[in-house]
Specification:
By secondary structure, the protein is mainly beta. The chain is 14% helix and 49% strand. It has 3 helices and 11 strands.
Length: 206
């Protein structure tokens, strides 16, 4: 009888794991730490900056990371550079035109070459990047680090329960593909925009 009870308990645990729902991670960071870094390295000038207005939702199942879905958004007006005048130009109509196009977004379509080791999953992400009214499909190498029960440590409150998901990616886009002053001022503003992000999303537990 005891052996039968143990077997039933083991089966129930396995069944619960197999049918566990994906976790929903919120990337609106109350600490304001999440950011995207960008760099344009032209012959005469190198421009670097950051964007902190990040939000979005990602559905991630540690048992089935290849089924990940989600959308990450960046408030275009949160993009800043060191030079105030450059910052005004960046936000202006010839460049990002943030008044008309306030959101930059990446919508995940699929993951390929998914590999998981420990709590880290790497993959090639295909998704739609929407920038200045143009949406194009791009491929991005990405990593997902799942950190169970680490939400309390991030917010410095052990009473807060939940998981973290950290997304990291480094890639390039061409500004001409998105109509950002295409072919202009290339001696000072590089055609290729180098992007780097490391952002954490939270999935609270009751």
């Amino acid at each position: 009888m005891k052996n039968q009870l143990r077997q039933l308990l083991a089966l129930s645990v396995l069944a619960g794991t197999a049918f566990a729902a994906p976790l929903s991670f919120d990337f609106k960071d109350p600490k304001g730490v999440n950011n995207v870094q960008f760099k344009l390295d032209a012959p005469l000038e190198s421009i670097t900056g950051t964007g902190t207005g990040i939000s979005g939702q990602v559905s991630f199942d540690p048992a089935k990371p290849g089924a990940t879905t989600g959308r990450i958004e960046l408030a275009a007006k949160s993009l800043t550079v060191g030079n105030p005048m450059m910052g005004e130009h960046l936000q202006g109509g010839q460049w990002l035109d943030t008044a008309k196009h306030p959101v930059i977004a990446f919508e995940l379509v699929s993951l390929a070459n998914v590999r998981t080791q420990g709590g880290v999953t790497t993959a090639d992400a295909t998704g739609k990047l929407s920038l200045k009214g143009v949406s194009k499909e791009i491929k991005v190498p990405v990593s997902f680090t799942h950190l169970p029960d680490k939400l309390g440590a991030r917010v410095n409150d052990p009473k807060v329960k939940g998981d973290l998901l950290v997304i990291r990616a480094n890639f390039e886009v061409n500004r001409s593909d998105y109509g950002i002053n295409a072919g202009k001022n290339t001696d000072k503003v590089a055609e290729n925009i180098q992007l780097s992000l490391s952002i954490a999303g939270s999935a609270p537990k009751a």
